[in-house]
Amino acid sequence: MTCRLGTMVWIAIALLSFLPICMSSKKGEVQVTVYEGPKKCKPSDDKSKPTKVLMDHTVSFHFTITIDESSAQGIKGLKVESSRDKGVAPTFPIGQGKVIPGLDQGLIGLCKGAKAYLVIPPHLAYGDIGVPKNGVPGGTALRYDVEIIEIQPPVPNEFKKIDFNKDWKLSRDEAEKYFSQEGKQVDFDGLWAAEDQDKDGFISWEEFSGPKGSEEPPKQQQQQQGPSQSEIDSARQLFSKIDTNQDGKISKEELSKNFESKGKQIDVDALLKSQDTDKDGLISWEEFINPTAAGGGQQQQGDPRQAEIDQMMQIFARLDANGDGKISKEELTENFKAAGKEDLVDGIFASDDKDGDGFITLEETMASKQQQAAQKAQYESMMQIFAQTDTNQDGKISKEELGTALKAVGQEMTDEFWDESDLDKDGFVSVEEFVGDLAPNAGKAKDSLKDEL
Description:
- About 40% of the residues lie in helices and about 15% in strands.
- By secondary structure, it is an alpha+beta fold.
- α8 crosses α13.
- The protein is flat.
């Protein structure tokens, strides 16, 4: 298996050098052609009802998606999807990422009742990965035939105005800042007593009873609106343990000593940099529990480790129930039991407990995270190559297709190689067989194949 996967990865790397030939340039923009209906219109009619699509407007429109004739990939003219087949014109807020970027851009400026063609280049559609199961390989240019049915004005969003750091929850500091700027006197104690239903010190998007527009928080964000009281208590215990002089702040020296006492090495400078948002050389409780809010949302850009460390610190503190700086199997089991996923604990410890001491440290967690990120990047590259090799886009690679791909990189197809690739002997190489151990469910897939064989 290892040999076969290594060969597949080598082929993928070799094939990557051929991809620029057949992938569209990322310099193109959306081309819009109105072929029927009004081409020019005012933003609103005499009754102040919107007649032109503008940013944040909610638009109902019919669409039919085909692969454009200019596309370097896919079957030109292939129908991908149509709202008319379903008989319902979908409704979306514009400019909020609810649709592909090219559609967000291309609909702006169209008039109510207009019919238009939108030619969307790959980088503003489905990129280099595509949607192979729908017949859209990576690098495909799409053509949208749209009709604007209805336009509604933006829904007022006071929540977004108050949420300065864009973390989808309101702190008291944010509320005081906002209403101070508005020159309004507010009873914040009364406001928090009425709105903060879970008493975690924040008003989440779901708790907020005022106008909050049509944009909802991402699903992951909805699941993590704010830490529970037990999570805050655990984080407080960990903070207090690291803060050895009990001055309410964690210094670089205290961080170093904490990890040294456990015999662990970690990049303290990177950790301090990610948490110390006011750059005073110390980590306050506010920065520790919510580094983005403490710094007013001004996270440094360009440091990919910062967001990762922020997130892992918060998750680690939640799982480390006794605040001793390491996660035991009992702590993880108790946490996962609530979600009915305690059967995953043994697997997590097998992969994350690097030194086999029966505990998972923050360092071990970060190492596993980096390994997963590298594996994901390799998996996505393999998926891209799969789509390129699967020339008829039927979701599987035939012996002829693989032979053509091998020939392109100066290799020949052998019966031995095909036997090692087509594990279930159905005459094709599936996605799972092609990417092997990189597949998200590779273990389960392999076990099933072993049973079958």
